[in-house]
Design brief:
The chain starts with 7 loop residues before the first strand and ends in a 14-residue tail after the last helix. The protein has one helix spanning 35-56, and strands at 8-12, 17-21, 29-32. The protein is elongated, with a radius of gyration of 12 Å. It has 1 helix and 3 strands, in the order βββα.
């Protein structure tokens, strides 16, 4: 299911890492030393976010159609 959510990947000069976010999922972020690693980490974070939402009975937003940036 993680593949359905758009992911944004940006370089952080402050942190010196790539930051990946899932804009549709509140506070769902991850980082990595490469863009590829950041995407791998955010895919894990998305799955964890969705599992937590299901366990807590939260409403899960549908994936938007935002473009993916890298």
């Amino acid at each position: 299911m993680a593949a359905n959510y758009p992911i944004e990947v940006l370089w952080s000069d402050e942190d010196k890492v790539w930051i990946a976010t899932a804009p549709d999922l509140l506070f769902c972020r991850a980082h990595g030393s490469t863009p590829h690693q950041a995407v791998e980490e955010i895919e894990i974070a998305i799955e964890a976010w969705l599992e937590a939402a299901k366990a807590e009975g939260w409403e899960v937003p549908l994936p938007s159609t935002k473009p993916v940036t890298a």
